[in-house]
Amino acid sequence: xxxxxxxTTLIKANLNDLVDKAExxxxxxxxxxxxxxxQYMQVKTQVAIAIADQHLLEKRQQENLDSQRDWVRKAExxxxxxxxxxxxxxxxxxxxxxxxxxxxxxxxxxxxxxxxLLRDALHRLEQKMTETKTKTELLIAQHRRARxxxxxxxxxxxxxxxxxxxxxxxSRVSEAEALGHGYLAAGESNGEQxxxxxEKSDQVERLxxxxxxxxxxxxxxx
Length: 222
Prior knowledge:
Layout: H1 2-12, H2 15-21, H3 25-80, H4 84-216
């Protein structure tokens, strides 16, 4: 039966191997679970149909057994009335129903085996569904934890990198400020030197002028 073949394939599926080989294990397990649920409903429907067919066969068997017994009673009645020909005919009819009931008995046995086979498949598939569902839930939980860890780690790393960048920037600013102060100090020192040189030169010129004036002496009086 194609249905049971598909169910058997699902039941025999090695979840660990499938997960290891899958690019997206979570997606694969979810799809596998959907396939199992679909097959489960089909098998469950087939179990109900098979049981109904078995009950129908049992009913038909009982009807033939009732008819067989009824014709036996008729044969007994015919013998009581000394109607051997009628009794013989009645017994022949009873044998026909007896054979039919026997045939139904074989069909019932085969149908019962089929029902049990479907029930076993349904039970095993149900167990596999539970296993797959548990595996899927665990895998989803693992993936969520992994994603959370990645996000948390990335965030922390970004914060760490931001702190480092800030420290570097702050260090550069400090260096720039120190360098600026150095340049400013160097500039102020140079200016002071130039101012002192100018003052000294001016002083020298004043002294030189005074000496010249002394050398010339006072001018004639009027």
